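Thread: quick sanity check before group meeting

JM: Hey all, I'm pulling together slides for Thursday and realized we never actually wrote out the predicted structure for the chain we discussed last week. Dropping the sequence here so it's in one place. If anyone has concerns about the input, flag it before I start.
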Amino acid sequence: MTVEYNGLREWIRIVDEMEELKIIVGADKAKDLGVITDYYQKRKDSPAVLFESIPGFPAGHKVLVNSFATFRRIGLTLGIPYGPVPEMLRAWREKMDRCDYQTEPVLLDNGPVMENILEGEEVDLSKFPAPRWHSGDGGDYIGTGCMVLTKDPDNHWINLGTYRVMVHDRNRVGFYISPGKHGWQHREKYFSRDEPCPVVVVAGGDPLLQVASRQEIPFGLSEYVWAGSMRNSAYEVIQGKYTGFPIPADAEIALEGFADPRERMQEGPFGEFTGYYASGERPEPVIRVKAIYHRDNPIIVGRPPSKPPFYDVNIDSFVKSGLVWDQVEKAGIRGVTAVWGHLEGGGRMFWAASVCQAYPGHSKQVGHVMAQCHAGAYLGRYVIVVDEDIDVTNLSEVIWAICTRSDPATSMDFIHGAWSGPLDPILPPGKGYRNSRAIIDACKPYEWKDQFPLVCEPSREERTEVLAKWAGVLGLRDE
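JM (edit): ok, ran it. Output follows.
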């Protein structure tokens, strides 16, 4: 199972050959682009959308959105076979298990990102069509599908994280990072020492690396190494002139600069993945851009959040589900048969797992570890644990299990003081960034699960036999 593309532009070409690319010409970046993006993100199995000839900008400047709304594109991006979601999840976990996570990036002297280098007075962010994604946003955001590079000043670990990046003026951008994230920890180390924090913002690049930047990769492991190991090929990088950071050699746009611990500007509001403007407008750190590197005809990758469900987050649900599953097993718990973070919770707030119960308390144990493992902890809300006969990706089945296999008075546990952040709409302003979690055990009671009432539907064998017999009459295919 290998990644079959090399970089963003080849990925776009393959997606076009798959007939899953929609090209839209002439959309205004402030009035049209965000609404059209929201329309496609809310449609299941919708195409990736490439905006071209954006008014007021060179015809070659483009914006790509809705990259991962189909599982065919997820399979392409991750290098796993396309098929039923449970089978893809198993293939993904097998791929993660095989990786040694040793593939360091390779430094080059040059690369496509250096086709244009702007420094000093030439630095001007207004040349790029950074969209106004939602009408209530406080500015134009060049960074939503971005990769923000920071470094731990103590051990030089390079982290890539996806944090929102708002354009303030020609050479300054604001970057909001939720408390506790790896990039936030790096930035706070510099600021606590009253030192400027070096930062690089990559506003378009390799899809797998961009996916990696959105995940809870283990502390201390660079996303370059994680994604390079996944693709079984080292990423090629160039060295930033001012920060010394390894910048993807094929990045579309890279902004290199520093955040001063004393400089703040009003950032936001911005419509977030919870479906609300929960974080409001606040003073946030600012990156003063020293240099812009960009390819000819650069492509901004946009992944603006919206009111759930929005299908571009499919890939985050998919990858995080594999990470949560993996972390539960590494905690010593076996018997989990599937994990899924539902889109209705933005891929974070509503988790479901199925388990083949092996002992009393097994299902509760799974739920508690899922709620607090690193990949599942941030801004969670509900964890539902069901039996192995329930398809955890099917929300209707999960709700049915809750309604028929859980007792409200005895099946729910609560965790208080868990990791949340300013994006959480239920937190009162100024009251800190902790919330509670509910773990719902919607499994048949272990002590008498073999006597639990039978489900009244045809067995899988009956269904397969009868539907195969009547397929022609019923107009069925591949049943």
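AS: nice. The radius of gyration is 23 Å. The chain has a mean pLDDT of 93.
JM: adding both to the slides.
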